[in-house]
Every structure is written in structure tokens, then in C-alpha cells.
Amino acid sequence: MNFLFFKQLHHRPAWLSIAFFFLLATLLAPSSQALAVPIFKDSAKRTISSKKQTVTLSNHSAIPVLGKYRNISQHKKNIGSKQVASKKTGNIRKKISAKSAIIIDAQNGRTLFSRSPDLPRQPASTIKVLTGAIALKSLSANDQVPVSNKAARQPRSKIYLDQRKQYKADDLINAVLMASANDASVALAEKIAGSEKSFAKMMTLRAELWGAKNTVCKTASGLTAKGQTSTARDLAAIFRHAMQDKEFSHRMGKTKTLTTDGNMLRSHNKALWQVEGTEGGKTGYTNAARQTYVGKFKRGNDEIIVAIMGSETMWSDIKHLVEYGFERKIALNKQSQQLLAKVDSDSLSR
């Protein structure tokens, strides 16, 4: 069809023009058999079934696909995290002292809030998350771990290991993750890799595999070392992956436990009894790093990871960030529902 055709059509009766355009619209309409377009974007492995209308992620959870049999790409831009404005964003920045901080959605890794999240800093004992996670995969609970002179001489925090004894790996892993024991960290590192230096390379590799590209480990304990660095974003990514291991998350959720020798280990993570929904976390402190923390929190179906570095008021920062993080999740959930309602409304009006 060309311009002349439309010019001629213009001089035909009105009913004929209307009939023509109705026919044209019918021919150009998309087939009802088109594949559904999921509104979820995730780097995880997925399979799409147009019959059942589900997206199956690598963790075997099934998520309903929104926008059944219709393209809603025109609405996607409406759900970006930057679009969810909050009057409290400015307030939260004033309330926390952390030099670097981030809140991510624990389920999909989406950033809910950040302050200089890629600023490299000393991680302090938060890096023990890697030490404990690697040890759990490398050793059996009853494996005997010797104590070298180097391990025994580590500064506090420590559980004062005796060089004349050997200890169960299970007890030392708890000491690392709960009591933040430096001596236990080095003993495990030497047992697994032969030396702390070699183990630190394993830690760096594990961090990279978990998406933490700016983390370099030099010690198993997190004690200040030249060249050792991480970021709030990396700590959040590391902890998100580590908590997917049931054995790791179970230990991180304990407030206290007994060793084989009957000694009590108490968690340094006060958030477990001070902040609603705490599932686990790791504290850290050195003069160079100041206060550091990474933890996971769950309320209802919402899960978030909070990481901070360079704080002077750690527990206050954590409380403020956790509350803000869940407020953001509620806002995002609400906007998702509004988006779905709009898609349904647009579909019915067509």
C-alpha cells in the first residue's frame, strides 16, 4: 500500500474506511500462542514453560511468570530500584557513621541502598566468613587439627589454643564463626592448605568465584595486612553465598554452643538478640578497619543482607539499615503489585 491508496481511501464512505482499518488491525495483531514474557531478570539458570507459566531458578524454586501471553516490556522501566523514592533515604545517610555500606536483596542480589559500596577497605574479622565456609567444605567434623606456634601466638580475639593438644575441626570452626578466634583461624588454615599464606590464596579465589572481584585476602583471621582489602559490596556477596549452605547458616544463627571439652563459645553478633529477624552475621574490628559487619535478616518472605565498613557506631548503624532495608522491600513489593495491576488493566482495555 502506498500514499495514493490511502488518498483514494479517504474519499470512500466512512463505513468502508472503518472496516478496512479494523481488518488491518486484526491481521497485524500478535498471535495468542506467543511465548509468555517473564518480568524477572536474574543471572541464575532458568527454564521457561509457556504451558505452566513458571520460571524455575537454579535453587529449584518456582516463580509465577507475570504478564501471561502479553508483552509488558513497555512497563519494565517503571519498576527500577531508582524509581522507588523514599523520603527516608537522606535521613538514613545522616544516621549511620559507616564509611561504606550496602543493603541487598538476599534472594536476587539487587541493591536496595548503598554508600560508597566499592570503596576498598580492610575487612577485619568479617573475612572469617570465607575461613569458616572453606573449612566446612574441606574438613570433617571430627578431623584433628594441630596447633602451631604461629597459631598459638595470635592476638585476641582468641580461645587460647594449647600447642600440646589437637582439636576437633568442628570446635574450631565454631570458634571462628561465633567467637571470632584468630588462633583457630590460623590453625584451620594451616591444616587445610599447609600455610596461612596458601590458605589466603584459596580465600581470594573463593571470593572471586562468589562474585567478590575486589577482595584480596592475606590472612585467615582478617587482622590488618598490607594488600588485604575488600568492599561492602563484596562482603554482602560473600555472605549471601555462604548462607546458602545449611551447615554454615545453622552455625551463624547460634548465640552460644559448647565445645567437646565443655567450654562455652558465645557469639559476638549481638544482632541475634537485638535486631528482629537476624539469621546470622559476622562482626569485625581493627584500628585500621574500624568496625565492620555483614549479616542476613529475614522478616516474612523478605530477606536482606547488610554490610558495613569503617563504622564508629556499628550496632546503631545495623539497626537503622535493617529497618530501612525492609521498608525498601515493602515499597518495591507494592510497586510490583501496582505494575501487575496496570498490566492486567491494559490487557483488559485492549
UniProtKB/TrEMBL annotation:
GO terms for molecular function: serine-type D-Ala-D-Ala carboxypeptidase activity. InterPro entries: Beta-lactam/transpept-like, Peptidase_S11, Peptidase_S11_N. GO terms for biological process: cell wall organization; peptidoglycan biosynthetic process; proteolysis; regulation of cell shape. Keywords: Carboxypeptidase, Cell shape, Cell wall biogenesis/degradation, Hydrolase, Peptidoglycan synthesis, Protease, Signal. The keyword Ribonucleoprotein does not apply. The keyword Cell inner membrane does not apply. Residues 93-312 form the Peptidase S11 D-alanyl-D-alanine carboxypeptidase A N-terminal domain. Substrate binds at K282. Pfam families: Peptidase_S11. The active site is at S125, K128, S180. PANTHER family: D-ALANYL-D-ALANINE CARBOXYPEPTIDASE (PTHR21581), D-ALANYL-D-ALANINE ENDOPEPTIDASE (PTHR21581:SF26). Belongs to the peptidase S11 family. This is D-alanyl-D-alanine carboxypeptidase.
